[in-house]
Amino acid sequence: MSNILHCLQLGESMRDRFLEEARSFPYGSALFLVPNRYFQQKIREKGVIRAATIDFLPQEILRWNGGTPGFRPVNRPAQKKILQEALDYLEPHLDYFSSLVGKTGFRDNLLALFDEFSRDGLEPETFKEVLLSWNREEPLKNKDMDLVRLYTAYCFKLQELGLEDLPRIYTRAAETLEEGGTIPWKKCYFSEFYQFDPVQLRLLRALGRCCEVEVGLFYDPGRPALSQVTEKIYGDLVGAGFAPVQEEPVRSKPEDLTALTLAWKPGARTETGAPHIHLGEGVSQEQEIRLALTSIKGRLQQGVKPEEILVLVRKLADYQGLVRSFAEYGIPCRLPQVVDLRSQPLPDFLTKLMAAAGEKGNLSLWQALFRCPLMEVLYQVDREKLDLSYTQLYFSTAEAFRLFLQRKELVSTGFWDLVDFLQDGHTPAEWQEGFLDCLAQWQLPQAWGRLHQEGKVDLDQVKLLTQTEQFVRETLEDLVRTWELCGKKEAVLSLKEVRTFWKDSLDRGPLTLTTGDSQGIPVREAGEIQGVSFPYVYLLGVREGMFPAVKRESWLYNDQERAGLNSLGLELNLTARALDTDRYFFGSAAVLASKELYLSWYSDEEGGASPYITELQNFFGADSLPVTVYQNDPDHCASRAQLVDFLAEQPRLAPREQAFLAEQTGSDFPERSRSEYRRWEETDSPWNGTVPGLVKKPLHLSASALDDWLQCPFAYLASRLWKMAPWQERTAFPTPDSVGDLIHRTLAAFLGKHRQEGLTGLPPEELEKELERTYGTIFAQMHQEGKIVTSPLLDHLRERYGKWLQNWLRKEIAYEERDQLGLKPDQVEWSFGREHSPWPELAKTIDGEKVYFSGQIDRIDTNGQKWALLDYKTGQPPSGKKILQGKAVQLPLYLEALETLGTISQEQILGAGYVQMRSGERMGGTWNEDVKKAFPWMQRAKPPEKEKALQAAAQAVEEAVREIRAGHFPARPEGNCPDWCPARDLCRIRENPYGTADKEKEEE
Q: Does an H or E element contain 925, and which?
């Protein structure tokens, strides 16, 4: 047979010449083989010759020669299962890998290595002989022998079950031809290939003995760096009798593109310049895409047809937002719009359902399941009501949560039947039947149709649901098929096995939401296309780590080990070969351009332009390839949506721009767009918390509420007036309010027994026991009330807060002993202005109107002549600076209440301070100077003077009352906003373009 190997220049193809020659053959008597469906479709469009991808070839040869009785093709799930069974069986005999047997990542990496062995046509016996001749020392020898055992067991099991992977099908087809088999073709053409696996090369050689074969392949001995990727194929085919023919380039291009096609290689130079090659750089991937699409939009506006433009990337996964970007710029694109499979409602629900049922004791998994939207559709779960229950109830275990759901009937009974089904083992067919019954009962298409009619979902969501339901059905079919292939059709599978199979099935790829525009611009990966000419080629992502792509060495056999095995006759891939392949991909992609070539990348802290860009600049000269950077301004904008954004940000517009913006956004857009600025510019407006008439007069305020207003008026509006509360899931830990209540109630009960006497002189051991009994009683009461929940942390919490109180007691005894005035607790939890309070409200006249204050003083100490107040704090007390600034008025108001309502003169009042309950330390507050002599622990302290604090508080109270009366509640936080603030997202303080109000005051 006359077999020919056509050696082509970079970017050239024999496709058209093969097609012209194929016209002389009757249809069906010649076969055109290509690497992928893109080229298959291009050949079929000519209608001259039968075209197929190369994987069709071995199967058709076997079919023509009577098939392969007793053998069936294996699917990927069956391969994983068979390998896992081999791992489990051999685990006791594995020395090196025994600890990794149950790891799915190890199994998958091992299967990838065995795939490579299979593509090389490597038999287990040969592999063993090679490793024995290698004869490495332990522990590496143990690794080699483990791999021999596993590969032997895996191949034996495939053969025993009569299963074949694709490489084995190639081998069997080659053997069939080598043993005298026939084929239906007189001639076969191979075009657009850059590599063949060893099993493919064997079949190609065998095919060449049955009919004429011609192969078109890039190979240029003058450019070894680029030809490295095809050099072995060239040698193998020439060694098999293929006659090499060096073809001359036939495509006409501008001088610089011709130089790139024929002469570019590392170290080469040219004097042609590069007027038809353009470089572009962005500071982000989005900017890079915008830069390219702006140029493409300009081409289209100049009359260039979409099919004359080609967009390439190294990997589409690196540029997942391309479809949306094309749509934003109004450019048609052939790339389909895809969505993530895992995040769709049905797969997400099934994943969480199996996770919860498989781990019944994991509360978080059950709560995640009941947050699924489908639980509401399928089992009538009121998710909002359930979420609210999380803030009110604490579930210590998953069982407690399930009992609550059943007791309150928050989910239909059919759900529990499904959970019971999942708990038992079933055969694959029974699992399939069970889930199909669920799909039939759920009637999801009808449910989604109703939601669409109600306007709750769009047509795309309905379409995706249909696709995901079909995916579930196909996965169930694969489940049955896989266990059938493994000879275990009637095996009983646990939920764990089904769950693992389901997780693996989710890896098959995204769902297609919409197909691409067949008349749009083609977008492809650089490795998928070569030898096709386009006038304009845009190659994106020519960036470090992306093109060339970063490829990690295999940890099973690294490059050094692979090189050693290759020297013994194997043909394993090396990382260096992957770099050679990427260089070829770049070169073959770049030379597809017949008029203009556009190369772009983005630069950030992680990387910049690819080394290929540096090589091109060296080849043409740096001055010949200036870099265009993205210009983010209206004059260079080709996106309607982006132009709207640009114009919306401008303070003033010309009439034409105003009309365009109004058409795109509505005539009221200027008014709406000013709202965010008015929120901060107009302090007296509804945009910033001005709601007159909301509060009733006369004002009744608590001292603590007034402190809340001073902390942030808008937070006061949300929590105190609108009664908003932050969403916070109930946990085993009590809320800060509950902790404060526990401490206050305990101290009130304990000190209530020692009023006017104090603790001095009493045995500390007895006091500790008394406090412990009092605390235990209060803790039990709050536990019974549900303020402290039953949980595994209950004993820990009881001990934790008990230690706080014991610390306080020791410090309290010491304070009493050192107190030179002999102050003793006189009143505890003494309230005023509340129902059943011993004192009435504290009335003040501000601007001629009465305002009434209430509060509860934690503790009043006295010796009959002098008086002092103490306030318990479980958190950090306010600083003296805040008190003097009038930003903490609670203690000054209590002092005023003591004077006015308790009829105690200011001369008799020493002041007020805080007790930090975690440590028991007394700190801060506001005092007279003479306390330093009476209280030794305050000798070095510098608390604000009582008179100054009272003056600052009086002024702050007056200002606050005026603003509250006027309905002024601006977003004006004092310091950082706490995480628990219910108005934190509502006020949007972080969006203030002028900074916080505090900063403005500081500047003034």
A: strand 921-927
Partners of 628 in beta bridges: 280
Q: Which of 537, 550, 522, 547 is nearest to 589 (CA)?
A: 537
Distance CA 911, CA 946 (A): 6
> Which strand (E) or helix (H) includes residue 876?
none
Alpha carbon distance 345, 429 (integer Å): 25
Q: Can you give the pLDDT at residue 1000?
A: 38
Q: Which residue has the tokens 């022998």?
A: 145
Instruction: Compute and round to an integer the Cα radius of gyration of the chain.
Output: 40
pLDDT value at 999 more than 60: no
Cα separations in angstroms, 323 against 335, 342, 959: 7, 20, 57
pLDDT at 685 over 80: no
Q: Report percent pLDDT > 70 for the chain.
A: 99
Alpha carbons 377 and 412: distance in angstroms, whole number:
11
**Amino acid code (one letter) for 155:** C
CB 883 within 8 A of CB 871: no
Alpha carbon 673 to chain centroid, angstroms: 31
Nearest-5° angle of CA 364, CA 368, CA 371? 140
153/161 Cα distance (integer angstroms)? 12
715: number of CA atoms within 13 Å, CB side? 23
DSSP secondary structure code for residue 10 in this structure: T
Q: What is the model's pTM?
A: 0.81
Q: Are strands 909-916 and 921-927 parallel, antiparallel or unpaired?
A: antiparallel
Q: What is residue 1's predicted lDDT score, i.e. its pLDDT? A: 65
Terminal CA-CA length for the chain: 95
Bridge-based pairing state of the strands 699-702 and 309-313: unpaired
SS3 state of residue 655: helix
| Spatial distance between the Cα atoms of 724 and 716, rounded to a whole number of angstroms | 10
* 97-111, 275-289, 965-979: segment of lowest average pLDDT: 965-979
pLDDT of residue 981: 83
Phi-psi region of 890 (alpha: psi -120 to 50; beta: other; left: phi over 0): alpha
Cα 166 from Cα 171, distance rounded (Å): 9
With beta carbons less than 8 A apart as the criterion, state whether 270 and 619 touch.
yes
Distance in angstroms (rounded) separating the CA atoms of residues 432 and 415 = 18
- Distance, in Å, from the CA atom of 26 to the CA atom of 34, rounded to the nearest integer, reads 20
Q: Which one, of 482, 366, 382, lies nearest residue 422 by Cα?
A: 366
For the four alpha carbons of 736, 738, 743 and 744, in that order, the dihedral sign comes to: positive
893: number of Cβ within 10 Å: 27
CA distances from 832 to 487, 748, 827, 842, 855 (A): 83, 16, 12, 7, 6
In angstroms, rounded to a whole number, what is the distance separating the alpha carbons of residues 231 and 821? 100
Q: Tokens representing 612? A: 């290929």
Residues in the chain: 1004
d(CA 698, CA 709): 17
Interatomic CA distance for residues 824 and 827, integer angstroms: 9
The first and second tokens of residue 237, run together, are: 């085919």
Non-local CB neighbours of 972 within 8 Å, separated by 6+ positions: 712, 713, 714, 996, 997, 998
Tokens of 532: 């096709």
Q: Can you spell out the DSSP letters for 54-118? A: TTHHHHHHHHHTT--TT-EEPPHHHHHHHHHHHHHHHGGG-SSSGGGTT-HHHHHHHHHHHHHHH
Q: With contact defined as beta carbons under 8 Å apart, do 264 and 612 qualify?
A: no
According to DSSP, residue 202 is labeled H
